[in-house]
Design a protein that fits this description.
With 279 residues, the protein is α/β, with parallel strands linked by helices. The chain has a single domain, classed as Rossmann fold (3-Layer(aba) Sandwich), CATH 3.40.50.300. Helix content is 38%, strand content 14%. It contains nine helices and seven strands; from the N terminus they run H-E-H-E-H-H-H-E-H-E-H-E-E-H-E-H. A five-stranded parallel β-sheet has the order 2-3-1-4-7. The chain has a two-stranded antiparallel sheet with strand order 5-6. The protein is globular.
């Protein structure tokens, strides 16, 4: 029997969209972790911040004034922020219509995560998800990953779980050098010019993230902002790239992908158990 309109409305009202943020430096493993979470979570979708739906056309990327190459790293110009903010707001409100989203699923590299681990977390989190549904909470999961995910306050605000994969310069650079090309907006294929990491990638990462950490040390401990932080005012320039409330830092520099995946799933399990306790 098909549902009556009132039944459909009741189901919509009981549905909650939970957004899981997975941010971090280039080559920290964030895309792989996000893809794995998407694999094990029922009723989930994966959103890449740098997909062509949210990245500017290649012709609009500014040329670095010193190094004379396209600068894809600068926070202010690497993402079409109004479009990305609106997409997340509509997703959170269960309205998926305003943005034509094109997902680049499948771009992540294959990695050594055991099938046993995947099955364990698929069963564990799937069982918790089923209990939540039995209690009347129809969860739709959105996994949002990006290298500038924690820079804009209006993007951070709707994220329910905030994972940050912390990586050091040497390790992330070595991983990046193993990649040959990147796919960008409008089908543009990108290859790093010589010294691109040292001249643009890492300096831009520091500029966008160092105020999130104590003494500006991006390899250290994150700052937990006070409730009155100016970060609540998205029109205040000082609120961009500042401390992030409830940030969960995962040490990508010394951990395998499987270790990071276990850590992320443990945090997600804790979140789901807390939701069950609320009912």
């Amino acid at each position: 029997m098909s549902k009556l309109p009132s039944d459909v409305n009741d189901q919509t009202e009981r549905t909650r969209v939970v957004l899981i943020g997975v941010g971090g430096a280039s080559c920290s493993g964030k895309t792989t972790i996000a893809s794995l979470l998407h694999t094990i979570l029922p009723n989930s979708r994966l959103i890449h911040q740098d997909d062509q739906s949210f990245a500017p056309p290649s012709g609009l990327i500014p040329i670095h004034p010193k190094y004379n190459v396209p600068d894809w790293e600068r926070a202010e110009t690497s993402i079409e922020w109004p479009k990305f903010r609106q997409f997340l707001q509509n997703l959170k409100a269960k309205d998926n219509t305003p943005v034509d989203y094109v997902n680049h699923e499948g771009w992540t590299d294959s990695v050594a995560v055991s099938q046993e681990t995947v099955v364990h977390w698929q069963e564990t989190l799937g069982a918790l998800d089923a209990k939540l549904r039995q209690n009347g909470s129809n969860i739709e999961w959105g996994i949002v990953e990006g290298f500038l995910l924690y820079w804009h306050p209006d993007v951070i605000e709707p994220l329910d779980i905030r994972l940050f994969l912390r990586g050091d310069n040497k390790t992330m650079k070595a991983r990046r050098e193993l990649r040959e090309t990147y796919g960008g907006a409008d089908g543009y294929m990108w290859r790093d010019p010589p010294e691109y990491w040292d001249n643009l990638v890492w300096p831009a990462y520091l500029e966008a993230h160092q105020r999130m950490f104590i003494d500006g040390n991006v390899n250290g401990e994150a700052i937990e902002p006070v409730p009155t932080s100016s970060r609540d005012d998205s029109t205040n320039p000082s609120s961009f790239g500042g401390p992030v409330a409830n940030l969960i830092v995962l040490p990508a520099e010394n951990a395998s992908i499987q270790d990071l995946f276990d850590l992320a799933c443990n945090k997600l399990e804790t979140f789901m158990l807390r939701l069950l306790d609320e009912h």
